[in-house]
Automatic annotation (TrEMBL):
Classification via Pfam families: SCO1-SenC
Domain of life: Bacteria
Family per similarity comment: Belongs to the SCO1/2 family.
Record InterPro entries: SCO1/SenC (IPR003782), Thioredoxin-like_sf (IPR036249)
Gene3D superfamilies per the UniProt record, alphabetical: Glutaredoxin
Lineage, top ranks: Bacteria, Pseudomonadati, Pseudomonadota, Alphaproteobacteria, Rhodobacterales
Protein name from the UniProt record: SCO family protein
Length: 208
């Protein structure tokens, strides 16, 4: 009986120490993110698993494409202004980070699968940066990915069947493998801001 009690005590102590370690590590990580000006906290409700289709027509998951710090954006290739501007901003930020020795992957996820074929979204992404990954999928797949990242999109009602617009949110999310979304950038943030905050966060959490 005493032996069983001793074993239970050891297990409880181990769980307590593990919990304390995790809590301390999370507190330290959150402090580091806050010091960099991050707007999202690691382990938060934004971001999550997804299954989409790449430019080669292959089904891929978030684990397949987010293998290093990544700038994730939801848009569509027929977007007349906002999406090209944000995609170019993310591409420039990626180059600025390269110059500093910090490598990230820019990712463009389509929320218009009716028109954005794998080839189309791949061509669109590659025009902005050679490392930018273009992803699309079925309406179910793209909707699920959008919901995971808490983004919004809505197809124009009664629009031209070929030239309709899609209203959508315009945030770019910094996702780090093993941590998830740790920061986000608005449409008004310039490339220098994106690069500076991203480099600070990547360095602070040791994701280089």
């Amino acid at each position: 009986m005493e032996k069983k009690i001793a074993i239970v005590a050891v297990v409880v102590a181990a769980l307590f120490l593990a919990g304390t370690f995790i809590a301390t590590k999370m507190k330290s990580t959150n402090a580091a993110l806050a010091a960099c000006g991050a707007g999202a906290i690691a382990g938060g409700a934004v971001g999550g698993p997804f299954e989409l289709v790449n430019s080669n027509g292959e089904t891929v998951t978030n684990e397949d494409v987010i293998t290093e710090p990544s700038l994730v954006y939801f848009g569509y290739t027929f977007c007349p202004d906002i999406c090209p501007t944000d995609a170019m901003r993310n591409a420039v930020a990626t180059d600025l980070l390269d110059e500093q020795g910090t490598e990230v992957t820019p990712i463009f996820i389509s929320i218009d699968p009716e028109r954005d074929t794998p080839e189309a979204v791949g061509y669109f992404a590659n025009n902005f940066h050679e490392r930018m990954i273009g992803l699309t999928g079925s309406i179910e797949q793209t909707t699920a990915a959008s919901k995971a990242y808490k983004t919004y999109f809505a197809k124009e009602a009664n629009g031209d069947p070929d030239y309709y617009l899609v209203d959508h949110s315009t945030y770019t999310y910094l996702n780090i493998p093993g941590m998830g979304v740790v920061d986000y950038f608005s449409h008004t943030d310039d490339p220098e801001t994106v690069a500076e905050r991203t480099a600070c966060i990547v360095d602070a959490v040791g994701a280089n």
